[in-house]
Amino acid sequence: MKHITTILLATVAAAGLMSSAYAADLIIEEPVEVGVVDVSGSWDGAFIGAFIGAGWGTADHTAAGGVGPVPVGGNDIDLSGWLLGVDAGFNATVGSGLVIGVVGDIAWADISGEIEGGAFDGTTHTIDWMGSLRGRIGFDGGAFLPYLTGGLAVAHAERFSPLFGGIEADATHIGWTVGAGVEFAVSEELSIDLLYRYSDYGAQTYDFSAGTDPEIDLTAHTIQAGLHWNF
Fold first, then answer.
1. 210-213 contacts: CB < 8 A, separation 24 or more?
2. pLDDT per residue as tens digits for the range 125-169
């Protein structure tokens, strides 16, 4: 009887060991998945947007008829103010993280200045709208896109003089612009755009009714922040 009990105990112990081993074989350890961070962006396609910003510049005056610069104390005017506009464009990735595109914009502005004192006291110059058509080239940094831009620039300005009882004239300037900016992706559809530009709008003759037709060279710096909807 003692031998039978020993055999039964040994059999139970062996069965337990086999069951443990079998159960261990059924446990499948899944390897920990290594996280993959997607650093590529999604900048391809069209976009539209709106922006707000500030501008400053100079309206350099040349004597009527283009004779030459007005002497010291003349009526060159420093300008400053704001702008509010809309833009639209298209981006395409051309490989190795290089993104090229084109963008056009139009902005309503009040970038102006006034002469205080002297013979031209009260003379004002105001840029009331500006626009551009530019190329862009940037680097796909994933959630951000730093870029350079340049192209055609247009601005409309008005000049008022209190001389001769008050005279005014306006002109549309056409020139060039260059700048640099960066876009930050907020979501797949929305990005924040920050941009600085220098614009040389060239010289135009302002036709005053009093017969004085000064030539004015217009330049401006602008900084702006906007939102782009990408689709």
1. 210/163, 210/164, 210/167, 212/64, 212/167, 213/64, 213/65
2. 999 999 999 999 999 999 999 999 999 999 999 999 887 778 889
Bridge partners of 187?
Answer: none
Which of 108, 90, 107 lies closest to 99, judged by CA?
Answer: 90
For residue 143, which amino acid is it? Answer: A
CA distance 43 to 91: 6
Q: Is the pLDDT of residue 14 over 50?
A: no
User: How many other CB atoms are found less than 10 A from the CB of residue 130?
Assistant: 27
Predicted confidence (pLDDT) at residue 112 exceeds the cutoff of 80: yes
**CA 160, CA 167: separation in Å to the nearest integer?**
6
Q: Pseudo-torsion of CA 114, 116, 121, 125, nearest 10°?
A: -10
Strands 215-230 and 45-62 come out as antiparallel
Token output for 8: 């039964």
Q: What's the whole-number average pLDDT of the chain?
A: 82
CB atoms within 10 A of CB 172: 11
Contacts of 202 (CB under 8 A, 6+ apart): 173, 174, 175, 217, 218
